[in-house]
From TrEMBL:
One of its GO terms (molecular function) is DNA binding. The keyword Transcription applies. PANTHER family: GNTR FAMILY REGULATORY PROTEIN, TRANSCRIPTIONAL REGULATOR, GNTR FAMILY. SMART domains: FCD, HTH_GNTR. InterPro entries: GntR_C, TF_FadR/GntR_C, Tscrpt_reg_HTH_GntR, WH-like_DNA-bd_sf, WH_DNA-bd_sf. Residues 5-75 form the HTH gntR-type domain. The keyword Transcription applies. Keywords: DNA-binding, Transcription, Transcription regulation. This is DNA-binding transcriptional regulator, FadR family.
Length: 234
C-alpha cells in the first residue's frame, strides 16, 4: 500500500471521527454540510470526504440520498444486527450452541421483563399470544408471532442490548424453523409455554418468569431434531 493511500485512510478516519462526535449531538434527519463544504472545512480532497462518509454510513450514523445529501440517521443498531446475523450464518456453531446463547440471555431477559414491564408491554404480549393461538401452525404467521413474542420480552426488559442481540438470532431461527417440516407439530407446546411466560411477566414474578422461559427453551433443545432442517442438524 502506498504512502498516499495510507495518508488518505488516516485522514478519512479523522474526518469520520470528528463528524461522528458532532452527529451524536444532532437530531435525526438533520442535514449535514455538503461534500464540497466538508472538503473545504477539513482542507482535504473530496475523495477523503467520500471515504469518511462511507465509514459513517457503515456505522449506521448517516444516510445519503439524492437531493438531500447526507443526513443524520436513527441509531437503532441495525448495522450491528446485520453483521451479527451474517456471523451466525457463517460460523461453525451448532444449533445447540445457539440455544446455549438463548438460555444465557433469555432467562434473565424474562426476569427483567417481569420486573420492568409496562402496561403497553403486557398488552403487546397478550396480542402476540392471541395472534399465535389464532394462526395456522404451518404458516409463516405462526412463526412470525412466535419470534415476535421473544423480541417483545426483550423490549419489556428495558435493556436495548437484548433487542439488538435477539433480532438477528430470530432471523436465523426463522430460516431454521421454516426449513424444518416438524416445526408445526410443536405448536401446542409453544402456545402453552408462551402463555406461561406472559402470565409470569404480568404477575411481576421474576423467578417464575425465569423458570417458564427455561422450561420453554429446554423443550426446544430436546426436540431440536424435529424443529430444524437436516442442514441445520449437520
Amino acid at each position: 500500500m502506498s504512502e498516499t493511500t495510507r495518508s488518505k485512510q488516516r485522514l478519512s478516519d479523522v474526518v469520520a471521527q470528528t463528524l461522528q462526535d458532532e452527529i451524536l449531538g444532532l437530531a435525526v434527519g438533520e442535514r449535514l454540510p455538503t461534500e464540497a463544504e466538508l472538503a473545504e472545512r477539513f482542507e482535504v480532497s473530496r475523495t477523503v470526504v467520500r471515504e469518511a462518509t462511507r465509514l459513517l454510513v457503515q456505522r449506521g450514523l448517516v444516510a445519503v440520498s439524492p437531493g438531500r445529501g447526507m443526513t443524520v440517521a436513527a441509531v437503532d443498531g441495525s448495522v450491528i444486527a446485520e453483521q451479527y446475523g451474517l456471523l451466525l450464518r457463517l460460523s461453525e456453531g451448532s444449533f445447540e450452541q445457539l440455544m446455549e446463547l438463548r438460555l444465557v440471555l433469555e432467562l434473565e431477559m424474562a426476569a427483567l421483563a417481569a420486573a420492568r414491564r409496562t402496561d403497553d408491554h403486557l398488552a403487546e404480549l397478550t396480542r402476540l399470544n392471541e395472534r399465535l393461538q389464532a394462526a395456522d401452525p404451518s404458516t409463516s404467521e405462526f412463526l412470525d408471532a412466535d419470534l415476535a413474542f421473544h423480541e417483545q420480552i426483550a423490549q419489556a426488559s428495558g435493556n436495548p442490548f437484548f433487542l439488538l442481540v435477539m433480532r438477528p438470532v430470530n432471523d436465523y431461527l426463522s430460516d431454521s424453523y421454516s426449513a424444518g417440516a416438524g416445526y408445526p407439530s410443536e405448536a401446542g407446546h409453544t402456545v402453552q409455554e408462551h402463555l406461561e411466560i406472559a402470565q409470569a411477566i404480568a404477575a411481576g414474578d421474576p423467578a417464575r418468569a425465569r423458570f417458564a422461559a427455561e422450561n420453554h427453551l429446554r423443550r426446544i433443545v430436546r426436540h431440536r431434531a424435529t424443529l430444524t432442517s437436516s442442514r441445520q442438524r449437520e
